[in-house]
Amino acid sequence: MKIVVCIKQVPDAKDVRLDPETNTLAREGVESIMNPFDRHALEEAVRIKEEHGGEVVALSMGPPQAETVLREAISCGADRGVLVSDRGFAGADTWATSYTLGNAVQTLGEFDMVLCGKQAIDGDTAQVGPGLATQLRVPFVTCVQKIRTIEGKSLDLERMMDDGYDVVRLPIPCLLTVVKDINEPRTPSLKGKMKAKKAEITVLSAADIGAKPDCIGLAGSPTRVVNVFSPPPRGDRTVFTGSAEEQVDQLVEQLGKYI
Amino acid sequence: MLIIDKEKCIGCGVCEANCAFGAISMEDGCAVVGDSCTLCGSCVDTCDVEALKIEIAADAGSTCNLNEWSGVWVFAECRDGEVSPVSYELLGAGRNLADQRKVSLGAVLLGSNVRDKATELIAGGADLVYLADHEELLQYREDVYGSVLCEMISTHKPEVVLAGATAIGRSMVPRVATELRTGLTADCTQLSMREEDGALLQTRPAFGGNIMATIECPHTRPQMATVRPKVMLPLVSDTQRSGDIIEFNPTAQALTSNVAILESVKAEQEKVNIQEEDILIAGGRGLDGEKGFSLIKELADELGAAVAASRAAVDSGWVSYPHQVGQTGKTVSPKLYIACGISGAIQHTVGMQSAETIVAINRDENATIFNYATYGLVGDLFEIVPLLKNKIKNVRGQ
Ligand SMILES: Cc1cc2nc3c(=O)[nH]c(=O)nc-3n(C[C@H](O)[C@H](O)[C@H](O)COP(=O)(O)OP(=O)(O)OC[C@H]3O[C@@H](n4cnc5c(N)ncnc54)[C@H](O)[C@@H]3O)c2cc1C
Ligand SMILES: Nc1ncnc2c1ncn2[C@@H]1O[C@H](COP(=O)(O)O)[C@@H](O)[C@H]1O
Fold it and tell me: Do B208 and A121 touch (CB under 8 A)?
């Protein structure tokens, strides 16, 4: 079983916010972390490898510093890390990202499964997984909450729906995006950490993966950002005082239209 | 790439302060761009001396003839023969866009034996219903639904395609946009038309709602967006409205699937789709166990509301994951959100801060949740929640 896990390095959401006074983005000490959903994708890949044998490759597209998340992935059980990095990738939207990751996966050769997180917490789009599957021309299922069985070239799994879940069967090779329900990720072992430290991260450029210049980065992106602004501030806030009963009375008065 | 004109740059540092990605720094009194630049362009507008410019080498798809594309489409999501409420909300939004562009509003209906839903969609605002009725479309499958929608779009060439940001919409629509090599904006909260050129301006939250971004799709069609449930308003259903049904016969290839649905399991709790609810009663670690949870369940029943939760409550096993609100759960925007025993960690608030009215009940008067609350109650929830339930019961009884 050869599994490619797509891992994105994202800014820790709690650090990114607007400075209410200057209305600009405060980014003091913004920390970069592994996208939380991708941690679950990685864990699932490592578990499959432990049961069925094979190899887990962690793949990321991003600036050189994204190497950190690939080392972290190795410390948690990935066999190796591949970073696709090129100035030309800057400004990629989900189309261009899917294209780039698609070329990268193909460069890595044949695979059985590609695992992605459900979404990345910086953009929250959840589009790269399905987009990548389309680029690779393999079937996919999003929001997988459980892999039930893997038998030969067939996979049974549970896909979370808004009103419950579907049990789905699909062939290998395929792509899955996972939700956090699927597993509890492990923390890196000491041995893993040592391995990660020494590991050689493969870095591939746009040319290395045969990416066309008009398909990558901003040039390859069908969408454009027109404007970035702060969300409108919330209206007035009231904290009631008095006994529990008095507070409840005041609240119910205010909630008239909902009751 | 981001070009910095060294002659013009005065090294004021405004762009550095504005960059969300920390990609700009000042060296020798001049701005320098680093690797983490995403070309979002927010620095360009803030530069008073116009020293910054974004240059694009070759533009994607500028060969697309935009004039060939006309009409606004809404994907009418249908599960178990029922059209989801978000589809009607999108028809409401789509009606405005179509009227502004003086084009027709189409609804796309895929399913098996769903023809009778077409009249409801027309009553909901559609001028045309594009119907593919086939037994292979009985259950939702990513590949078949995606392929059929691709064929429909390529045949009829609508300029705009909208879908709900639901489990189904968010899995099949990205496939369609990728296949058609066009732009897709996820999870929009606002849509408008730019009159001059018919550009769909799509506004969405980014970075967990800490910033908003407006996005357009200048060179390719259709312009595609998914929209969160409960954000747009449906029209009042009007059975006098007239419209046409346009049959669509997908090719055999489009109907061939690699995916088999073995079983569809509906969640036990009836109201598990918390994104569709008007009122949510949410509980956190402060509930201190399943008993606390039954308190908020009673309050929810009294209000006809659904139960939501923080991650701490889900991780403790008091309630299942589909109820989780926040960064790793669902994003909700109900009319009323009552947070009981939730501290207000950013990972939670990003998922609920766009609710119309937020009520917080917490015994710690310094809890962050009060920064988000329209109304705050300081005290023990085990005392307050039952009081609230009874009071509401009394008011309703009158
Ligand atoms: C990567 C990542 C992703 C995450 N994603 C999410 C997410 O999607 N959703 C989410 O919710 N969290 C998420 N979290 C967790 C988040 O950071 C918080 O830990 C979590 O939201 C806390 O839940 P809580 O408010 O219920 O619990 P606590 O923070 O423990 O707060 C409990 C509150 O209850 C109050 N309280 C206690 N007893 C009573 C009483 N008797 N009466 C009244 N008030 C009482 C306390 O004063 C306290 O404020 C995430 C964290 C990480 C690191
Ligand atoms: N730059 C990237 N490098 C590697 N994986 C990515 C990248 N962007 C997105 N992904 C993968 O796609 C998933 C969905 O991302 P998104 O569509 O951006 O929400 C993530 O959870 C990752 O698994």
Answer: yes
Does any CB of chain B come closer than 8 Å to the CB of residue A164? yes
Return mean pLDDT, chain B.
90
pLDDT digits (tens, 9 = 90+) for B141-160: 999 999 999 999 999 999 99
Please indicate whether, in this complex, the C-beta atoms of A27 and B19 are within 8 angstroms of each other.
yes
Q: What is the C-alpha to C-alpha distance for residues A229 and A227, in angstroms, rounded to an integer?
A: 7
Q: How confident is the model at residue A12 (pLDDT cuts 50, 70, 90)?
A: confident
- Name residue B341's amino acid: G
Reported as a pLDDT band with limits 50, 70 and 90, residue A35 is very high
Q: Which of B176, B166, B139 is CA-nearest to residue B84? A: B166
Residue A13: pLDDT over 70? no
Residue A257 belongs to some domain of the structure: no
d(CA B13, CA B295): 53
Lowest mean pLDDT among A248-257, B173-182, B347-356: B347-356
- What is the CATH classification number for the domain harbouring A151? 3.40.50.620
How many separate domains does chain A show?
1
> Which one of A16, A25, A142 has the shortest CB-CB distance to B171?
A142
- Does the pLDDT at position B209 exceed 70? no
Cβ–Cβ < 8 Å for B75, B161 = yes
CA dihedral B42, B44, B48, B50 (to 10 degrees): 180
- Output the six-digit token pair for B398: 């009158």
CATH of domain B274-397: 3.40.50.1220
* Ordered alpha helix ranges (H), chain B: 14-18, 42-46, 85-101, 117-123, 142-156, 169-179, 290-303, 311-315, 346-349, 381-397
- Domain positions in chain B are 2-54, 66-247, 274-397
Distance from the alpha carbon of residue A61 to the mean position of ligand 2, in angstroms: 9
Q: Which member of A95, A161, A229 has the closest CB to residue B167?
A: A161
CATH 3.40.50.620 corresponds to the domain B66-247: yes
Q: CATH says B2-54 is which class?
A: alpha beta
Partners of A66 on chain B (C-beta within 8 Å) are none
